[in-house]
Amino acid sequence: MAWSLKSGLPVGKIIKSTVFTQFCAGESLMESHETAVMLSQSNVGSILDYSVEGEQNEEDFEKNALYLQNAIRKAAKYPEIYPFAVFKSTAVGNTQVLTKVTMDNTLSALEMESYQNWKNRMFAICELSSSLGLPILVDAEETYIQGAIDKLVIDLMKSLNKQKAMVFNTVQLYRKEGLDIVKKIFLEAEKHEFFAGFKLVRGAYLEKEQKWAENKKIPNPINPSKKATDEMFDDAVVFCMKNLQKISICAGTHNELSTLKIIDLMHKMKLKNNDKRVWFAQLLGMSDNLTFVLANEGYNSAKYLPFGPVKEVMPYLIRRAEENSAVAGQMGRELKLLLKERKRRH
Ligand SMILES: Cc1cc2nc3c(=O)[nH]c(=O)nc-3n(C[C@H](O)[C@H](O)[C@H](O)COP(=O)(O)OP(=O)(O)OC[C@H]3O[C@@H](n4cnc5c(N)ncnc54)[C@H](O)[C@@H]3O)c2cc1C
Q1: Does any domain span residue 6?
Q2: 8 is a domain residue
Q3: What's the structural domain count of the chain?
């Protein structure tokens, strides 16, 4: 699909009426707002995600940063668009420069300028969102750039999370270091007196990470098994929940067992279902059986609503297609549930 689009083949319409409609809310913020209104009728929040990826020049980064700030201004005016704004750091900064920063390599003068521009854009976006009262999630990306992102998001938290968690860092628990990163940021929060916000996810770049490690002849940064990732995800949840006086979480997961474990913990801790420090989120087009049941039971539940021009959201759509192509995977499970429910109703 990506190749067909690049070659100018007229496949845009087919993509728009199939995978795009399933996984994206629209090509613009206005189009996506309609989905947010519909979700809000079921008490489900909408996290609008301008899903452009892989830009490579400063002009595009600047354009994206301005677009994101405009989108945040509009989003903050719509009551249906809550509880978070979200963005990807690589939409506003150069991946190669972030890789060098993560690897502690020396930057040229030009790269230094690009790095500083990225930091300025990240601050401008988060400061705006926080000033408008809309907490913001910073997505997690590949390990080889995530070091630079983590470092900056800690600074953002130090500066903007003095009263409550307004900036959330995303931690991928498929990383061997995942739980340590959560603990390290928590220690910083205690030391510098700020509130930590975490979006906890398992991680979306499994194969890419494996290939990168093989190519660079470095140890694979990913946990040795799915079981190890599952355990680390649940351990991170327990750690955060035990420290809720300083931590807020958004559990970005489609895993039913992990979701049930969080609910169980909330009950054991005698928290209200809608305790404002605990959010659940799923991606649009996936796991409606979790999102809507959670919302119905009074838990804080939201959907990620990716949006953007068809061409620009292709990397996101390809990740979803890959994730959902296995019959034994998420979509297979959901299809089974739908068929079972249809049978029950007839
Ligand atoms: C709201 C939301 C926001 C998200 N934001 C981000 C983000 O910012 N960055 C990001 O990277 N991802 C993000 N994701 C995607 C997420 O990381 C997962 O890829 C996806 O949700 C599938 O994991 P799961 O917890 O839903 O469930 P499951 O289906 O139970 O888990 C699948 C996941 O387990 C892990 N896994 C699978 N096999 C193995 C193995 N052999 N060894 C080790 N681990 C394995 C992988 O992470 C895989 O994606 C987000 C997801 C949601 C719902």
Answers
A1: no
A2: no
A3: 1
- Which residue lies with its CA nearest to atom 27 of ligand 1? 255
- Domain assignment present for residue 3? The answer is no
Residue 2 lies in a domain: no
Is 149 touching ligand 1 by the criterion CB < 6 Å? no
Q: Tell me which residue has its CA closest to atom 4 in ligand 1.
A: 252
C-beta of 252 in contact with ligand 1 (< 6 A): yes
In whole angstroms, give the CA distance from residue 48 to residue 70.
12
CA dist 141 and 163 (Å) reads 27
CA 129 to chain centroid: 16
Is the overall model pTM greater than 0.70, yes or no? yes
For residue 335, give the CATH number of its domain: 3.20.20.220
Q: Which residues pair with 168 in a beta bridge?
A: 137, 197
CA of 204 to the centre of ligand 1 (A): 5
Atom of ligand 1 nearest to the CA of 250: 1
Number of residues assigned to the chain? 346
Q: Whose CA is nearest to atom 40 of ligand 1?
A: 226
Give the number of the atom of ligand 1 that is nearest the alpha carbon of residue 281.
1
Beta bridge partners of 200: 171, 251
Give the SS3 label for residue 27: coil
pLDDT along the chain (346 residues), means of 10: 74 85 92 95 96 83 95 94 96 96 97 98 98 98 97 98 98 98 98 98 95 96 98 98 98 97 98 98 95 98 95 85 68 86 92
Q: Which residues constitute the domain of residue 294?
A: 14-345
Cα of 26 to ligand 1 centre, how many Å? Answer: 23
Helices (H) and strands (E) in the chain, counts: 15, 8
Kind plus residue range of the DSSP H or E element containing 301: strand 301-307
